[in-house]
Amino acid sequence: MNLVLLGAPGAGKGTQAAMLVSEFGYAHISTGDILRAAVKNETPLGLEAKKYMDAGDLVPDSVVIGLVSERLKEKDTENGFILDGFPRTIPQAIALTDELSKLGRDLDAAVAVNVDPEVIVKRLTSRRCCKNCGHIGSVADAVCPECGGEMFQRDDDKESVIRNRLDVYEKQTAPLIDYYRGADILKEIEGDKDPKDVYVDVKKSLGL
Length: 208
Ligand code: AP5
Ligand code: MG
Fold this sequence. Notes:
Elements: E1 2-6, H1 13-24, E2 27-30, H2 31-40, H3 44-55, H4 61-72, E3 81-84, H5 90-102, E4 109-114, H6 117-125, E5 127-130, E6 136-138, E7 151-152, H7 159-173, H8 175-182, E8 186-190, H9 195-206
Parallel strand pairs: 1-3, 1-4, 2-3, 4-8
Antiparallel strand pairs: 5-6, 5-7
Bound molecules: BIS(adenosine)-5'-pentaphosphate (AP5) and magnesium ion.
């Protein structure tokens, strides 16, 4: 199954993607994770991306489209993939359609996870992630519940940056909901419930 996960920052895209990957083995393509790894390794891409990410703005389309196009050529994506955090603009969505058609592939669904912005601000200010395995947890986790690794707060999980990310989402990414509705592959999910219950709804919407 080839999927796009849509939703505001903090809607739970990474959380749902991790569950789908663990049950079905799809390749997980998170542009945020790829960019954060580049920032950490201080690659030219990371140095370019950091200023946008720290401010909660989008990295330029040309940069992200190039990254995803390369990633989609890797063999592990042939058994299905989940795009998490891409596309985020209409030009990115058009580029994705073009790239997939070159590869003779197609999207099966775009799953939009809907959560109220104020719930999101609370979630993101208390999010912590594992330095070692990437597990997404919360401020209540003294160490990673999966591997015992050290937990850290993302640089962009400060309230002022979160609010800018939400504005950017409304202006630049929310139009993708209509884009995928028009393509007749949109599935809308209520994301303000227990993550396991959201996951049940995600699978139901996909016929899994
Ligand atoms: P990215 O890493 O994609 O961040 P984001 O979209 O802002 O989304 P998040 O990762 O913050 O949230 P999520 O939906 O994955 O939620 P999560 O599962 O973690 O992008 C970061 C930056 O990179 C961007 O700002 C931009 O600069 C750049 N970038 C990335 N892609 C780009 C692109 N395509 N184009 C241009 N620039 C790009 O959950 C959040 C929290 O809530 C966690 O603590 C979790 O435990 C908790 N939680 C999850 N589900 C639930 C639930 N159901 N109930 C209660 N709590 C929950
Ligand atoms: Mg994420």
